[in-house]
Amino acid sequence: MDLSKVRELVKLVEDSRIDELEVIDKDTTIRIQKHAAPSAHVAYATTLPATPPAATLPATAPAGPAVPAANPERAKWREIRSPIVGTLYRAPAPDAPNFVNTGDAIKPGQTLCIIEAMKVMNEIEAEFGGIIKEILVENATPVEAEAILFLVDPA
Question: What pTM did the predictor assign?
Fold first, then answer.
């Protein structure tokens, strides 16, 4: 696929209500995604194994919370990421206490939050134990897939 065709696809996504477009052409796969910021998009061009390299477009950084790295202990902290796109809720109901707060000890299988996607409430559970050090997403806010939700000290 030539660069002009890729530019046309990017323009198509940019000018439409499409959030994501994936095109497979022979041995090249191109995925173009819109993110929360207006006109912010990421274009990926990848090739299948044993084929010549494909041209890539300059990619913009995906929108998401920035994680400062000032604390040297932070290097050992583990991330808990959103598995899906949706709206994050920190409590089971508006008047209920949060599932977890900063400083809470968590254990594997414990519910950390709920992400609503397409009117389905999905409980997000801890895959490992530790202490919640930071909560990076506010209640009732949209999250992208792979967005960092919590930083946990596994010690």
Answer: 0.55
